């Protein structure tokens, strides 16, 4: 019944297009059994929630809110533990507090969480010590262990991805709705950290927020709104068999939504106009994002907007610029200008991570904290010059004390990377670097939106 309605809504039109970055499944029947099963399971998110996020992204496109999207490059099934998920949520919420309080701006919070399991790769194989195996494509496809068995794409993993996403979302909902995220607990989130300047500064913010809250309470304020926060889920919609199988018809509107996450994005490697990813996502009604790298043109951006958002609905389409610090000031202006002049409603985010990856002398894939900040600064400068709106930040982070990104006040250096380098794909800001980044971005935002100062 539902499947018939989905087919009638045209969600299978992508099947006739080229889909890049898909695994070679060795057993088509086994894949089919799994995707059939996934068409029967309950949705992970609800269409009404996705609509609410679209409204908030629309506010960000107008400069009335700022988006913070963060989480792992690649989530790992075995790491979906209560501690690690809580640390990640806490990091995002702390960053959001810093941005909200520091720049007097509501923050739209989105995790790269509960579904970020499929990775695009630059090569199909990986060679170590003369042995060549299929590349690791994320836990939803195969395992990162370098053995022939673990690298075989296994469709059972699609079901695992669904279940781990469900348990992660369950924890997200519990933490954000069940009291943990209460703004009156901002102090507690900081407990147990060292005397690093970022933590000291956070503590100062927490004290000021406490005072403001106590003042409001004394004045008879109603604090129910402070008890909960909304944290939306997002991932790259890369593995189309999975995304299609989790697509449902919204009973209220009769429209298809991809219920694997609230917010879905198309990566830099799969954004071809005539490709399967653009085709599939043009048919679902979630808010969407497309990554734009330094080779993108304003013509590409305008054509993508016409395909993905033909009715020009604010909040439906976000562009995530990931140009690289050395290119953002040259490559981004003509794109933003073209989109502006075409009158397109778009939310602009900066991803200062993916254009700034390099291999350190000791051989680690890393990024430099100052370079990351420089790209964010360039992004703000471009929007300042064009009179457009810098709508948000997209970062790879973890709540743990890993050592994957060089720099920050901890001054992690090349040697220091070896201490705790855990990522399976891209290097992430650790907890402390994430808070530092939030303070610096709050300053940029405050400078860009000075009129907000008048509120106080
Ligand atoms: C990512 O976000 O992890 C990623 C692969 O990004 P991009 O498509 O921008 O390279
Ligand atoms: Co990444």
From TrEMBL:
Record's catalysed reaction(s): D-erythrose 4-phosphate + phosphoenolpyruvate + H2O = 7-phospho-2-dehydro-3-deoxy-D-arabino-heptonate + phosphate
Matches recorded under PANTHER family: PHOSPHO-2-DEHYDRO-3-DEOXYHEPTONATE ALDOLASE, PHOSPHO-2-DEHYDRO-3-DEOXYHEPTONATE ALDOLASE 1, 2
A UniProt-annotated Pfam family: DAHP_synth_2
Keyword tags: Amino-acid biosynthesis, Aromatic amino acid biosynthesis, Transferase
Listed pathway(s): Metabolic intermediate biosynthesis; chorismate biosynthesis; chorismate from D-erythrose 4-phosphate and phosphoenolpyruvate: step 1/7
InterPro entries xref list: Aldolase_TIM (IPR013785), DAHP_synth_2 (IPR002480)
EC number: 2.5.1.54
Name used for this protein in its record: Phospho-2-dehydro-3-deoxyheptonate aldolase
Family: Belongs to the class-II DAHP synthase family.
């Amino acid at each position: 019944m539902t499947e018939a309605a989905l087919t009638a809504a045209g969600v299978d039109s992508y099947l006739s297009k080229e889909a890049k970055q898909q695994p070679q499944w060795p057993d088509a029947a086994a894949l089919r059994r799994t995707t059939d099963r996934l068409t029967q399971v309950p949705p992970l998110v609800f269409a009404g929630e996705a609509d609410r996020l679209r409204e908030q992204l629309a506010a960000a496109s107008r400069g009335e809110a700022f988006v913070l999207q963060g989480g792992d490059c690649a989530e790992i099934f075995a790491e979906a533990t209560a501690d690690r998920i809580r640390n990640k949520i806490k990091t995002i919420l702390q960053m959001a507090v810093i941005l909200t309080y520091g720049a007097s701006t509501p923050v739209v919070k989105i995790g790269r969480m509960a579904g970020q399991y499929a990775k695009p790769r630059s090569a199909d194989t990986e060679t170590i010590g003369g042995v060549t195996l299929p590349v690791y494509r994320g836990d939803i496809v195969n395992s990162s262990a370098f053995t022939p068995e673990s690298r075989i794409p296994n469709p059972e993993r699609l079901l695992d991805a669904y279940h781990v996403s469900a348990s992660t979302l369950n924890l997200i909902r519990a933490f954000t709705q069940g009291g943990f995220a209460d703004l009156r607990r901002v102090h507690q989130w900081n407990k147990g950290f060292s005397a690093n300047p970022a933590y000291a500064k956070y503590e100062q913010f927490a004290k000021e927020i406490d005072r403001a809250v106590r003042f409001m309470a004394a004045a008879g304020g109603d604090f129910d709104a402070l008890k909960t926060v909304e944290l939306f889920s997002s991932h790259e919609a890369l593995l189309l068999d999975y995304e299609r199988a989790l697509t449902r018809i919204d009973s209220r509107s009769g429209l298809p939504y991809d219920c694997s996450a609230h917010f879905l994005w198309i990566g830099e490697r799969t954004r071809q106009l005539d490709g399967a990813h653009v085709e599939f996502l043009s048919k679902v009604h979630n808010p969407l994002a497309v990554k734009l790298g330094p080779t993108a043109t304003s013509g590409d951006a305008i054509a993508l907007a016409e395909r993905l958002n033909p009715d020009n609905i604010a909040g439906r389409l976000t562009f995530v610029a990931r140009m690289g610090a050395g290119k953002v000031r040259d490559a981004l202006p003509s794109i933003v200008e073209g989109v502006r002049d075409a009158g397109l409603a778009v939310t602009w985010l900066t991803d200062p991570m993916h254009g700034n990856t390099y291999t350190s002398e000791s051989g680690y894939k890393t990024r430099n904290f100052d370079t990351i900040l420089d790209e964010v600064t360039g992004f703000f400068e471009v929007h300042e010059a064009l009179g457009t709106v810098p709508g948000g930040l997209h970062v790879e982070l973890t709540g743990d004390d890993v050592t994957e990104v060089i720099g920050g006040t901890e001054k992690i250096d090349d040697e220091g990377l070896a201490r705790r380098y855990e990522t399976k794909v891209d290097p992430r800001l650790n907890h402390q670097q994430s808070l530092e980044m939030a303070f610096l971005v709050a300053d940029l935002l405050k400078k860009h939106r000075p009129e907000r100062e008048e509120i106080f």
